[in-house]
Amino acid sequence: MTTFTQLDAGIPLLLLPVRLETRFTPRDAVGARVLKIRIYPDDVHQDSHEPGLTAAESTGGKEFWAALWRAGRGVEGEQQRLTAWQLLVARHGAHRARWIAERLTPVNPGQRPDERIPADAPLSPPPQWPDVPSADAAWTRASRIAVLPDRWLATGHFGGRKVFEQRGAPITRPLATGPDPADDLNEVGQVGPGMRWMVDFAAAELAGMGISVRLPPGSPDRFDRITVLGVAESLDAAEATAALSGLLDAHAATWGLDLVPQGTPTNNDGPGRPGGRRPRTLDGAGVLAALDAAPAAPGDGSDAAALAHALGVTERTSPLWRLPHAAGTEGGEASAMAAALWPATWGYYLRELFSPGFDGMPLADWRRFTIDTVRARGPLPAVRVGDQPYGVLPVTSLTQWRPHPSRPDLLF
């Protein structure tokens, strides 16, 4: 019953974490039982974003840009620009304010004045507004998860062998994860139909988020490992990239999305906020600078560029280019440090201490491999969605590695 047989091996998969809950039913008269598996998405799946702007948001965003227009681009208008940003944040919250400002970026940025304009003088030329989607209310739909596989495949192992492999039903997309303003709920604690899968196992099975595995008599009472995996085989590479880009946009505009620098503490024992927690607001000067400057181009050596390349999200409109710490170069710095340390570490060790066994071996290739790929921190920056950090780790099957036909002397 194995699935995933038609996948293109040249296209990487992005596997997002889920939480599993399991329970055995009592054995029946012949000793059979059922293992019930529930799958709950993690924070990274959640999408409560409202892309459309309400009338108040549109008005506030235009007032913000008009204030920036009037403040000019010089140092003397810096406080005026920061005040405009703080006012927008006070009305709509930091992450939503950035979304509003980005959506309403004037289409004539080259005509923005360099010098300050007096309050009683007209803006000439004025900002010209783009067409943006509108919304009748700030809350129009339930929070949901849409970036999901077609179905889940559950496998269970015990004693070094596979005991079961079971596919779930096709997954309903999108799935509600919060109340819907359109629901007519009259009782306290009542759950709307869209959220029923979260509290009712039968509904979860119908939605593809629950799996029942019938275990025959003599099956083990426990499992060493249960794995649940799913792939959106129905999406091509472009469609999957678009779905991921939309999810990143949603996080950036709601919970917050940023890169986590190395050395950030995950906890603290004092009154301050742990480094793993998102900031309550955004750096106004940084946001204003990002609104002024074009996003960094793909391949520019930044941490954002490395992550965007790995995820396949290289469009200049992606929020990855505007995240806090996106311009960091920690990956490049780690590469430079590896190059500097090579002569006194692995280079010396392999050349001197392993001689003569390593005489004639391709040390130059090993040096290049170490500089390009060996990272104690991992090759990609960590991402934080709201308060939840995620490591981005490339994985592959080491058992299927083979030497390159043109260089059988290399071990990698």
What does this structure look like?
Residues 106-129, 261-281 are annotated as: Disordered. By secondary structure, the protein is an alpha+beta fold. Among the domains are: 18-48 and 142-181 and 191-231, Immunoglobulin-like (Sandwich); 235-263 and 278-397, no CATH class. It is 28% helix and 14% strand. It is built from ten helices and eleven strands. The strands form four sheets. Strands 1-2-7 form a three-stranded antiparallel β-sheet. Strand 10 and strand 11 form a beta hairpin. Helix 2 packs across helix 3. The longest helix has 17 residues, at 55-71. The two termini are 33 Å apart. The relative contact order is 0.12. The mean pLDDT is 87.
SS-based structural class?
alpha+beta
- Number of distinct helices: 10
Outline, from the CA principal axes?
flat
Instruction: Tell me the Rg in angstroms.
Output: 27 Å
Number of strands: 11
What is the strand content? 5-15%
The profile of the biggest β sheet is: 3 strands, antiparallel
H and E order: EEHHHEEEEHEEHEHHHHHEE
Mean pLDDT: 87
Helix content: 25-40%
The neighbouring-strand order within the major sheet is 1-2-7
Uncertain regions spanning at least 5 consecutive residues: none
Q: Between the first and last Cα atoms, what is the distance in angstroms?
A: 33 Å
